[in-house]
Amino acid sequence: MAWSPDKTEVKSWNEWDTLRHVIVGRADDCHIPPEEPALDAKVPEDSDMRGQWGRRPQETIDRANELLDNFADQLRKRSVRVDRPVSIDHSQPVATPDFHTDSQFGCMPPRDVLLTVGHEMLEATMSYRCRWFEYLNYRPLLKQYWEEDPNFRHEAAPKPRLTDADYNPDYLSEKIGDAQRLEWAAEKFFVTTEEEPLFDAADVLRFGKDLVVQHGFTTNLKGIEWLRRHFPDHRVHTVNFPGDPYPIHIDATFTPLRPGLILNNPQRRLPEEQRGMFEKNGWEIVDAAQPAHNTPPPLCYSSTWLSMNVLVLDPKTVCVEKSEVYQAEQMDELGMEVVEVELRDAYAFGGGLHCCTADVYRDGDCEDYFP
Ligand code: NVA
After folding, report:
1. Are 21 and 83 in contact (CB under 8 A)?
2. Tens-place pLDDT, residues 289-317
3. CATH superfamily, region 19-251+352-362
4. Which ligand 1 atom lies nearest to the CA of residue 355?
């Protein structure tokens, strides 16, 4: 049955079929959380964020919200239904019997927390203590979907304990250096241990019957095994990008645009031995264009490669950040219509156009692209 804006239905099997309904995050009350093991390992050693924490400056919150609101309006004008989460109070500490941290993270970005696979939305375990309760920002929406769509499956992965046993102490030193980090990444030695299953939703890409999952700082092998058992009708593939000294979240590294075509970060190429399923099925993996910026904006966790963190609206149309002119040019050469969206001043809140959204409904069914 064709999608109707008057009826809520959750369904999305991949990253590219026509987008009809989406969640766009909010910058409300976002915080820079205090130090904690998994977060410290991710904050670049030369970052302006090291050593500071607290609520983000109000003018940056207002500016990010302005951009996110504009993005939501742009999508609505293209007939996409857009829902927004309800921010909780992120100044509250997180305390469990196992750990305590003095503040939370924010209501951004939804893609990190929510994984939509078919008719299911799965709340990820997360691996940062400050993000333990982040799913609560989305509960009003998920409650609504559950009440309105009888086929919607609302699932939550087991909450992790996040004791010190979850983190490799070698990663906790102030100065490690990129050479050492790259060596460790090549050995698949990451900050998270194999104490218990851990994954962030943003380490997963959906290709119909296949899920491609990055093993790195925020997702461990047990997390991938948990996904494998949870989705028994899918094939779950583990990938690594050894060129990345801070491997978290796959969506500034590997970006499927349509069946048969993926952009890959040229500094984080998929190793030859992991390319088999794509090559055998005639998929092309092309180097993404260079970012337009040499540095991320202030107080930003992410790299300049948010340039390739695009949102595909359908197999011929893609949202690209307005200042990312090289990425837009490449999309044009690849035959995609580009929708420019201004978002750079919201990057600091956790990512780009793909990150700040979570799929609710895309057309299409669960296809096997890698028979
Ligand atoms: N590892 C990523 C996260 C972006 C979504 C980066 O390049 O910063």
Report:
1. yes
2. 999 999 999 999 899 999 999 999 999 99
3. L-arginine/glycine Amidinotransferase; Chain A (3.75.10.10)
4. 5
ipTM greater than 0.90: yes
d(CA 146, CA 258): 30
Q: Checking phi first, is residue 188 left (phi over 0); if not, alpha (psi -120 to 50) or beta?
A: left
How many angstroms separate the Cα of 180 from the Cα of each of 12, 37, 271, 355?
A: 39, 18, 19, 28
- Identify the residues whose C-beta falls under 6 Å from ligand 1: 246, 248-249, 251-252, 302-303, 305, 309, 351, 355
The closest residue, in CA terms, to atom 8 on ligand 1 is: 302
Å from CA of 163 to ligand 1 middle: 25
* Cα 360 off chain centre by: 15
pLDDT digits (tens, 9 = 90+) for 336-353: 999 999 999 999 999 999
Tell me how far the alpha carbon of residue 342 lies from the centroid of ligand 1, in angstroms. 18
Residue with tokens 């028979």: 371
Report which of 84, 41, 4, 95 is spatially closest to residue 244, judged by C-alpha positions.
41
Stretch (H or E) spanning 48: none
Q: Which of 240, 248, 295 gets mutated to test ligand 1 (max ligand atoms within 8 A of its CB)? A: 248
160 — alpha (psi -120 to 50), left (phi > 0) or beta? beta
Ligand 1 atom nearest 305 alpha carbon: 7
Q: How far is the CA of 1 from the centre of ligand 1 (A)?
A: 37
Cα–Cα distance, 142 to 156 (Å, whole number) = 11
Task: Tell which phi-psi region holds residue 118, choosing left (phi > 0), alpha (psi between -120 and 50) or beta.
Answer: left
Catalytic residue numbers read 200, 249, 355
52 alpha carbon – ligand 1 mean position (Å):
20
Check if the beta carbon of residue 104 is closer than 8 Å to that of residue 130: yes
Whether residue 321 contacts residue 339, with contact meaning beta carbons closer than 8 Å, is answered with no
